[in-house]
Design brief:
Blueprint: H1 12-26, E1 39-44, E2 51-56, H2 66-72, H3 100-106, E3 112-117, E4 120-126, E5 136-140, H4 150-162, E6 168-172, E7 185-189, E8 211-214, H5 219-232, E9 238-245, E10 252-259, E11 264-265, E12 269-270, H6 273-276, E13 279-282, H7 288-292, H8 296-305, H9 311-316
Parallel strand pairs: 2-13
Antiparallel strand pairs: 1-2, 3-4, 4-5, 5-7, 6-7, 6-9, 8-10, 9-10, 11-12
Length: 317
């Protein structure tokens, strides 16, 4: 399964790429990636080999502008709000954005691609407030918590392999970037993550907690043990970000231990999987200064703020 990725006419990656292009043409995305005027700063860290990416994407703020979303047809102005499922734990009373029936009622333009991953049913939908090109949210068909289990790693790897390694797969745990912690989902994109360029044996020099596992060396099992041990230490407060990618053709799992009490950073707000992987997405008015002053020091400052206080002792144990 890991010896190499083979592209064939029914490859899931090709289907997703075609769906993304169609959704751009149909106007479902907030802005057409081919026409988007996104400002980018890059900052290379010679010690780790990581070139951090900072992007100013103010168009993403439209995702909260209900009248504009309705005007564009991204959000159904005639949706039946009484029919929408709401998880009773949501403090804001929002409907679940990831339940299939809710998606159909609210976003009639959205195309859901059914896929079975590690034996469970999922749907992949283009993220209209996209962060990277070919950005999809892959949501479980069942409304089940965004909680880590061995299935998460298995499903992530299955998705990565079935897209011939094109798509990077991200998992954001509760208070680690997951805005809907009551519905299992992943973020995927074809864009290379900065962390993929990390020099060998440089994990300790990265500004936040990080473990890297090569799948060819029983990496999936070792990653699972590390994650489970970390979460078991304080199940109420600990969380995790996970990335599966194949830098240089080497399928790998990047594990970022997180603490829910350290979910945000000054100048950035919520820090999720993209950010811990070195990709800083900035769109809110208060984040513009962060973008304009972006540097290696900026990245280190943000990532150090979400370094879990208990990790050093845990890693040494």
């Amino acid at each position: 399964m890991l010896a190499g990725f083979h592209v064939h006419p029914t490859d899931l990656g090709l289907k997703l790429l075609g769906t993304w292009q169609a959704q751009a043409r149909d106007g479902f995305l907030l802005t057409d990636p081919a026409k988007a005027r996104i400002l980018t700063h890059e900052a290379a860290d010679e010690v780790t080999g990581v070139t951090y990416r900072f992007r100013w994407m103010p168009h993403r703020e439209i995702r909260g502008d209900i009248p504009e979303l309705e005007r564009r047809g991204i959000l159904n102005p005639n949706r039946d709000s009484t029919a929408l499922f709401r998880d009773p734990r949501d403090p804001y009373g929002r409907h679940c954005f990831l339940c299939r029936d809710n998606v159909i009622e609210c976003h009639p333009m959205e195309v859901l691609v059914p896929v079975t991953l590690a034996g469970r049913k999922y749907y992949a939908g283009a993220n209209f407030a996209w962060i990277e090109p070919d950005h999809f949210t892959v949501m479980a068909a069942e409304h089940t918590d965004q909680a880590y289990s061995p299935h998460v790693l298995e499903a992530m790897l299955d998705l990565h392999v079935r897209t011939a390694g094109r798509f990077r797969v991200l998992f954001n745990g509760p208070e680690a970037g997951a805005t809907i912690p009551w519905h299992l989902h992943y973020q995927i994109t074809t864009a290379q993550m900065p962390i993929e360029r990390l020099h060998p044996a440089c994990e300790e020099h990265y500004p936040t907690a990080l473990c890297r596992f090569h799948l060819a060396d029983d990496g999936l099992e070792r990653a699972n043990r590390t994650i489970e041990q970390w979460l078991a230490g304080d199940a109420q407060q600990r969380s995790v970000n996970i990335l599966i990618a194949s830098p240089g053709g080497d399928p790998s799992v990047f594990v970022f231990p997180r603490d829910q009490r350290h979910a945000t950073a000054e100048g950035k707000g919520l820090v999720g999987g993209f950010e811990v992987a070195g990709d800083f997405v900035l769109s809110a008015p208060g984040e513009e200064e962060t973008f304009r002053n972006a540097s290696v020091a900026t990245a280190a400052e943000i990532l150090s703020q979400v370094y879990p206080p208990d990790w050093s002792a845990t890693a040494a144990a």
